[in-house]
């Protein structure tokens, strides 16, 4: 099943990848700097910074792993100083926020689009609910009350189900996006503090990072039964899958390495030292390089995927956090 950050290879790819190849335009990485409210643009052909442009918004957990692109705009969110959350749409050509919708009390962690791109669904940890916004009208069209502190959000490729950790009650829940009702919930163990999660590219598994337990737990996506438990580093935060689905890279906020896990055996096969305070990981579409935001050094680590080795650290803005890789849309 093709899904999510395969969204870059499907939605963005269909629209721009062919054009980029024909015109020899480079594939760009966009690094969203939380502290300086700007975007560092990296040419992935040379692994060199092109420029940093002001955005005027603090973007945090935006990642290639999710469906965020409606064919024209990137949909994500901004946590505001007063504790509220805006769902925002960004024009990547201009590096400009072109739409804002106030949705409720944060923090938020993820915005995902439905397959028809007509709704943007966001988790609101402060309100203990999920909310769907109509991407055409900007109106809130659906919402559902969930458990304590819903943290992160990811969906299956067909858009039928979405999953989210309920951090403050140590559970992971499954919601039917056709009815907007929670249909299943599983305990991760007292004190686990599930932080973030991702659905595997084949749609069979949900990978959950437990920040306090320092584990990555793999759940069956249909039943939420536990498939594997893997000890990792300190405070694992999120993961990303290589484009071929062979490996999962897990980052840590309180450690300086990425855990590389074999997705067939669920065993850790390597640890790639990068820097302190790692957040979002994104892969180039051809799978040659991975990019990871390192807030501890205000930079982006470039990893050679074949060698599973850090090859470069590129300076970014203050507190690089969100990170996506996509073909260029023009100058």
Chain-wise SSE layout:
Blueprint lengths: L5 H18 L3 E7 L4 E6 L4 E7 L19 E6 L4 E8 L4 E10 L5 E3 L5 E6 L4 E6 L5 E6 L8 E2 L5 E6 L4 E6 L4 E7 L6 E6 L5 E6 L4 E6 L5 E6 L4 E6 L5 E6 L4 E6 L4 E7 L4 E6 L5 E6 L4 E6 L4 E7 L4 E8 L4
Antiparallel strand pairs: 1-2, 1-27, 2-3, 4-5, 5-6, 7-8, 8-9, 9-10, 11-12, 12-13, 13-14, 15-16, 16-17, 17-18, 19-20, 20-21, 21-22, 23-24, 24-25, 25-26
Question: TL;DR?
Answer:
By secondary structure, this protein is mainly beta. The protein contains one helix and 27 strands.
Structural description of this entry:
This protein is mainly β and 331 residues long. The chain has one domain: Methylamine Dehydrogenase, Chain H (7 Propeller). It has 1 helix and 27 strands. The strands form 7 sheets. It has a 4-stranded antiparallel beta sheet with strand order 3-2-1-27. It has a 4-stranded antiparallel beta sheet with strand order 7-8-9-10, with no helix packed on it. It is globular.
Kindly report the CATH topology.
Methylamine Dehydrogenase, Chain H
| Termini gap | 33 Å
- Specify the biggest β-sheet: 4 strands, antiparallel
Number of H- or I-type helical stretches: 1
Helices and strands, in order, run as HEEEEEEEEEEEEEEEEEEEEEEEEEEE
| CATH class descriptor name | Mainly Beta
In total, the number of strands is 27
The SS-based structural class is: mainly beta
Number of domains: 1
On the 0 to 100 scale, the average pLDDT is: 92
> What amount of the residues lies in strands?
over 45%
- Runs in which pLDDT lies below 50 for 5 or more consecutive residues are 6-23
Shape: globular
CATH level-two architecture: 7 Propeller
Q: Which percent bin holds the helix content?
A: under 10%
- Gyration radius, rounded: 18 Å
Identify the CATH homologous superfamily: YVTN repeat-like/Quinoprotein amine dehydrogenase
Strand order of the largest sheet: 3-2-1-27
């Amino acid at each position: 099943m093709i899904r999510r950050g395969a969204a870059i290879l499907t939605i963005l790819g269909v629209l721009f990848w062919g054009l980029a190849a024909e015109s020899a335009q480079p594939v760009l990485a966009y690094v969203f700097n939380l502290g300086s409210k700007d975007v560092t643009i990296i040419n992935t052909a040379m692994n060199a910074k092109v420029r940093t442009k002001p955005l005027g918004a603090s973007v945090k957990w935006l990642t290639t792993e999710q469906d965020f692109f409606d064919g024209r705009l990137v949909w994500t969110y901004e946590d505001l100083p007063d504790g509220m959350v805006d769902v925002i749409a960004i024009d990547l050509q201009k590096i400009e926020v072109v739409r804002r919708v106030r949705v409720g009390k944060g923090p938020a962690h993820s915005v995902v689009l439905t397959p028809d791109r007509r709704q943007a669904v966001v988790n609101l940890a402060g309100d203990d609910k999920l909310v769907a916004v109509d991407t055409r009208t900007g109106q809130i069209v659906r919402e559902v009350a969930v458990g304590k502190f819903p943290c992160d959000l990811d969906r299956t490729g067909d858009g039928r189900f979405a999953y989210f950790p309920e951090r403050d009650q140590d559970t992971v829940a499954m919601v039917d996006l056709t009815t907007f009702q929670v249909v299943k919930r599983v305990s991760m163990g007292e004190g686990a503090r599930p932080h973030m999660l991702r659905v595997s590219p084949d749609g069979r598994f949900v990978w959950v990072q437990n920040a306090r337990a320092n584990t990555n737990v793999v759940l069956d996506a249909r039943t939420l039964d536990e498939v594997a438990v893997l000890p990792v580093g300190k405070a694992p935060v999120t993961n990303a899958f290589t484009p071929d689905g062979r490996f999962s890279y897990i980052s840590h906020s309180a450690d300086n390495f990425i855990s590389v896990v074999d997705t067939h055996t669920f065993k850790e096969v390597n640890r790639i030292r990068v820097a302190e305070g790692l957040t979002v990981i994104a892969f180039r579409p051809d799978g040659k390089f991975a990019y990871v935001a390192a807030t501890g050094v205000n930079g982006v680590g470039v990893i050679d995927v074949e060698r599973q080795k850090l090859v470069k650290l590129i300076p970014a803005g203050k507190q690089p956090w969100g990170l996506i890789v996509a073909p260029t849309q023009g100058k």
